[in-house]
């Protein structure tokens, strides 16, 4: 494993848009105003169906997906899906999971992603995910998996953590490699799993025959969105206090109420970005920065004349409400048309299976299983 310092040096030396590194550490951020995707790329990402999308999902994943879908060359392949197998690592009632799966599809579409440009599907509909997962798991070291920070955080407090929760990063690697992905947009908390994916791809290529490209991690330009009620932790659907979580389909009245109750601080003469000393204010500045696609410095200049919390929070409310208006209305329309959602998914499932079956056939041949 690379040292933290060496990894940091490598990341800093890489270009911010199209990365060309000899190291297996391939991570890039992008400027959505100047986004360049190489010809013949394969862009892939999944999101868990844990209910309606919140602000963090929107800025950290879905809007990035939309940017990539719009900018990808015609020669590229774009695949987005619902990670419903991953959702089972912490079991849910069947009826709830079924609802969540289609809410996730509606949320993806309501962000503006065109199902004619991107394959949109359910992970569980493509059995090749599970088969490649097993093959790759035979190359995944227990020690490597045990070091995963997501495993440590998600298993904390559980009386009995499942094998699925422990090993799901390998399934995630199978998801990515099954479509020979070259670019994978994820949040910063998933970057470690992409390192594992590159490791497993390299191991398989060396042990058998070159089969998989080594995918590049694309990190969202927006910093992690934190809870409005407790800015020491990220915004979450599982937070007991849902006043700290803003959903894309929240009404303007609900958004205003939640933001009004948001934790800030006692300084009202000015509003500046300082995540250590002013975490609540900084979280909202970061949110504005993400939505408006402006730098933190530009946002600070825009709000320099504010001298009370009410004015500041009203501004934040207006920015978020305006951004969510169109997706919220479209989400509501889509949820009233289950037949359309089903047709989109069936079309996506079919296309995904076609690609996946071809890759798995190659994998099995190279591994001596065919």
Q: Give the quaternary arrangement of the chains.
A: single chain
CATH architecture of the domain at 25-224: 3-Layer(aba) Sandwich
What overall geometry do the principal axes of the alpha carbons give?
globular
Rounded to an integer, what's the Rg over CA atoms?
Answer: 21 Å
**Helix percentage range:** 40-55%
**Strand tally, please?**
6
| CATH topology name of the domain at 25-224 | Rossmann fold
- Figure out the total of helices: 13
Q: For this structure, what is the CATH class of the domain at 25-224?
A: Alpha Beta
| Largest sheet: spatial strand order | 1-6-5
Straight-line N-to-C gap: 34 Å
* Low-confidence segments: 1-25
- How much of the sequence is in beta strands? 5-15%
Name the helix and strand elements from N-terminus to C-terminus, one letter apiece.
HEEHEHEHHHHEHEHHHHH
Largest sheet: 3 strands, parallel
Estimated structural class: mainly alpha
Mean pLDDT: 89
The CATH homology group name of the domain at 25-224: HUPs
Family: Belongs to the class-I aminoacyl-tRNA synthetase family.
Subcellular location: Mitochondrion matrix
EC number: 6.1.1.2
GO molecular function, one term: ATP binding
Q: Which labels suit this protein?
A:
370 residues, mainly alpha, Rossmann fold, 3-stranded parallel beta sheet, 13 helices, 7% strand, globular, disordered N terminus
């Amino acid at each position: 494993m690379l040292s933290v310092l060496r990894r940091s040096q490598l990341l800093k030396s890489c270009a911010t848009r199209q990365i060309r590194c000899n190291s297996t550490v391939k991570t890039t951020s992008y400027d959505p105003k100047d986004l360049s995707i190489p010809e013949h790329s394969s862009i892939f990402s999944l999101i868990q169906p844990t209910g309606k999308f919140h602000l963090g999902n929107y800025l950290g994943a879905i809007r990035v997906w939309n940017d990539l879908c719009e900018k990808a060359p015609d020669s590229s392949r774009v695949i987005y899906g619902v990670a419903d197998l991953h959702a089972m690592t912490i079991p849910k009632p069947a009826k709830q999971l079924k609802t969540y799966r289609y809410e996730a599809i509606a949320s993806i579409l309501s962000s503006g992603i065109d199902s004619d440009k991107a394959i949109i599907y359910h992970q569980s509909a493509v059995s090749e995910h599970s088969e490649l997962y097993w093959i790759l798991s035979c190359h995944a070291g227990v020690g490597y998996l045990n070091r995963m920070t997501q495993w440590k955080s998600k298993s904390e407090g559980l009386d009995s953590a499942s094998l699925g929760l422990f090993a799901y990063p390998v399934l995630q690697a199978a998801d990515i490699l099954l479509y020979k992905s070259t670019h994978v947009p994820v949040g910063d908390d998933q970057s470690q799993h992409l390192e594992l994916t590159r490791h497993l791809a390299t191991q398989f290529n060396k042990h058998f025959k070159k089969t998989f490209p080594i995918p590049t991690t694309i990190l969202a330009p927006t910093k992690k969105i934190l809870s409005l009620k407790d800015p020491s932790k990220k915004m979450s659907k599982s937070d007991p206090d849902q006043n700290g979580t803003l959903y894309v389909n929240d009404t303007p009245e609900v958004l205003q109420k939640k933001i009004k109750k948001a934790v800030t601080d006692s300084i009202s003469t000015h509003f500046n970005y300082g995540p250590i000393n002013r975490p609540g204010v900084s979280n909202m500045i970061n949110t504005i920065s993400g939505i408006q696609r402006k730098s933190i410095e530009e946002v600070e200049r825009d709000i320099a004349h504010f001298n009370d919390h009410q004015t500041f929070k009203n501004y934040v409310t207006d920015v978020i409400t305006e951004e969510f208006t169109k997706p919220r209305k479209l989400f509501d329309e889509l949820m009233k048309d289950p037949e359309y959602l089903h047709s989109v998914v069936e079309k996506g499932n079919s296309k995904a299976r076609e690609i996946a079956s071809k890759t798995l056939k190659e994998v099995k041949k190279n591994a001596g299983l065919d």
